[in-house]
Amino acid sequence: MSAGFKCKQFFVGHDQCAMKVGTDGLLLGAWASLSNSSVLAAGATLLDIGTGSGLISLMLAQRAPDATVHAIELDANAASQAAANFQQSPFRDRLHLLKGDILTYQPAERYALIVSNPPFFENALLGTDGRRNQARHTASLPLPLLLDKVGQLLAASGSFALILPHAGAAAFSSLAVAKGWFISASCTVLSRAGNAPIRRLIQLQRTPCETLQQQLVIHNETGSYSAQYRALLRDFYLNF
After folding, report:
1. What are residue 83's phi and psi, to 5 degrees?
2. In this model, does residue 129 exceed pLDDT 60?
3. The whole model's pTM is what?
4. Which of 29, 23, 30, 31 is nearest to 214 (CA)?
5. For the stretch 93-119, what's the b/e string if a residue is b when 16 or more beta carbons lie within 10 angstroms of its beta carbon?
6. Residues in CB range of 113: below 8 A, 6 or more apart
7. Is the distance from CB of 24 to CB of 164 less than 8 angstroms?
């Protein structure tokens, strides 16, 4: 078995991926709201943009047992590994890998839920690994273009969930609101209570709504995972 991450219902190989399985993907895959009835309905189709190893797609397939999940990935090696991970999972019949660029993707259907753990480093020093730069830096997928593309692909009643560094989340949220989106949920993520926030989970929709404000602390004072984090990831972590 290749190097990777073992969940309760599936394994995620990631040795061929520029970005390995990490906390950001796990948080988004578990946190993204499926409360919209159309997401859980038989025949619903979800989209994971920049799937990498396929982790978030696999998590969504587990959480939405009647839905089909499309996963798009630009990097050839990551796309190949995600496809292999899908085939080895119990959800293989509901997972479909699309190799290509989301900005040129033109499907006939519209999606009930779109998720993305996007490249989010802006104006940062690039490393020597081109694949890792592509996975991490917004030059490969600028957030305004991602938001516009999601608007084209999302069903009228659908929603869009993503994770961003806390430092850039306010500017992105303002951009989204200016473009006619509404924020249904916003979760500030802290490594430990009292520390500065590190991430923000955001869910957007096209129809007016109240914003659910949340906070998630990953570690408790002893450094082990908090009860809150354990509750969120209980269906996936082997030892939770």
Report:
1. -60, -40
2. no
3. 0.90
4. 31
5. ebbbbbeeebeeeeeeeebbbbbbbbb
6. 32, 34, 36, 39, 44, 46, 47, 60, 158, 159, 160, 161
7. no
69 contact partners, CB below 8 Å, separation of at least 6 = 45, 46, 47, 48, 57, 60, 61, 91, 94, 95, 96
In contact, 229 and 216? CB cutoff 8 Å: yes
37 compared with 216, residue with greater pLDDT: 216
Contact by Cβ (8 Å): 113, 36: yes
Both tokens assigned to 39: 């997401």
Position of tokens 């479909």? 96
Instruction: Please state, as a whole number, how many other Cβ atoms lie within 10 Å of the Cβ of residue 233.
Output: 21
Question: Does the pLDDT at position 136 exceed 80?
Answer: no
